[in-house]
Amino acid sequence: MTERRPLVEGLKPVSPLVDPSVEKQFVFGGTAKPEVVAAVERAAPPVVRAPFTTRIRADFAAAVKRASLERQLSGITPNTLQEILEEALEPWLRAHGYVP
Fold first, then answer.
1. Of all residues in the chain, what percent are helix, strand and coil, respectively (each to 5)?
2. Model-level pTM?
C-alpha cells in the first residue's frame, strides 16, 4: 500500500512552468462576451394531458385494445389507446363546436 500524504502536499505547485501573469489573466480575466442569441420561433404550447376515466361497452373496449395491439405490431400510428381515442373524439368535438 502506498504511503499516505497530507492534503497540503497535493496543493503544492507541481511545476513553475506557468507564467504567473498568464495564470492571473486566465483566472481573473475579463468578463465573457455575451453570446448573441438568435430569435427563437415560439412553438405551439405543448398539449397538456388530463386523466379521464369513463366506462364504455365491452365490445368497444376489446376492439380498441385489439386495434392498438395490431397497429403497434405493424408500426402504424396512431397505435396507443390514447392516440386512437383522441383521433376519434376530435372530429366530433370540432363538428359540435366544443373545440376551435
1. 45, 0, 55
2. 0.53
Cell numbers that stand for 41 in this block: 420561433
Sign of CA dihedral 24, 25, 30, 34: negative
**String of DSSP letters for 7-37:** HHHHHS-S-TTS-HHHHHHHHHPPPPPPPPP
Helix (H) or strand (E) holding 8: helix 7-11
Give the span between the Cα atoms of 68 and 86, in whole angstroms.
Answer: 13
Q: pLDDT by residue (tens digit) across 35-89?
A: 777 777 777 888 899 999 999 999 999 999 999 999 999 999 999 999 999 999 9
Give the tens place of pLDDT for each residue, 3-15: 888 888 877 766 6
